[in-house]
Amino acid sequence: MKTLSDQAVGTAHGKIILIGEHAVVYNEPAIAMPFLATPVEVIIEKIDGDSVISSSYYQGFFKNVPSSLKNIYTLTETICADLNQSADGMSISISSLIPPERGMGSSAAVATALVRALFSYFKKSLDQTSLLNYVDISEKIAHGNPSGLDARVTSSESPVYFKKNSRFTSIPLHVSGYLIAADTGMKGQTKKAVEDVAQQMKQSYKQTRQLITKIGLLTEEAKTAIEENHTVHLGELMTLSHDCLKQLNVSNEALDHLVDTALKQKALGAKLTGGGRGGCMIALAKTAKQAKRIAHKLMENGAVETWIHALGEDFND
Ligand code: PMV
């Protein structure tokens, strides 16, 4: 976060669920990763008169924002009131590389960057607890009942291990290699997929519960792999978890095709990420060169966009 005179910048980034999605609904653990390849930047500059905002959704007077930006509006008003500052006289410009509605934490990341920019603009210090509380105000408007995960991961540089109704734990990232994310171009259908898994849990309890338990075990193993730099094993665990998610019927043809494409290109592992039935998939590669080749093949095979996030150095056997 840097401040020039009368100008301030706040940043954040996207998130991906590395492993554990869907099982986390049934009290198994999950791991989410900050995805630095999709940054968000909010710049605030001093202007005369009414505040204006510029984003990919809307450009114009802040007081006239459409309902899709209501969260941003309320958040700004709240912070200005708390800090005893006027909400007029600002030009707020939001630029984000996170695709919206793909489970990559777009709304939380924009809110995080905005809170940081506003505090910097008003030259006030901001602690992590206040940041998360402010982002929660915005996320409640955008999503109703947020778990807090997106706020936590889009503002952090470490992977986060979490279970429903318990504390988030940062895990030290010691893995080398490269994470590739690819967008199917379809909105994810988290709500429907979660409902369908619940239905399966009623109809075929034993089989569904076994899959959920297995994803939980894979996630625990993935935590150790991340802590101990077992990149190859982490890849295997990702692919195994995709197989479970497929059996839970939360994948779709486009996701499966991209996963197969990445594995054919010798990715260490690949899986859907987030709610499924659209949205994004991820793959793990050893080297930057391999990651670029995989990303290229994913584009040739239906992805509309890809991103590469370097976890550490190139991985050598
Ligand atoms: O699509 P996302 O990133 O919001 O993730 C959904 C994760 C699920 O486990 C499928 C649902 C949930 O609420 O945890």
UniProtKB/TrEMBL annotation:
Domain GHMP kinase C-terminal, residue spans: 224-301
UniProt-recorded name of the protein: Mevalonate kinase
An example Gene Ontology biological process: isopentenyl diphosphate biosynthetic process, mevalonate pathway
Pathway: Isoprenoid biosynthesis; isopentenyl diphosphate biosynthesis via mevalonate pathway; isopentenyl diphosphate from (R)-mevalonate: step 1/3
Positions of the GHMP kinase N-terminal domain: 77-150
Annotated keywords: ATP-binding, Cytoplasm, Kinase, Lipid biosynthesis, Lipid metabolism, Magnesium, Nucleotide-binding, Transferase
GO cellular component: cytosol
Family annotation (InterPro entries): GHMP_kinase_C_dom, GHMP_kinase_C_sf, GHMP_kinase_N_dom, Mev_gal_kin, Ribosomal_Su5_D2-typ_SF, Ribsml_uS5_D2-typ_fold_subgr
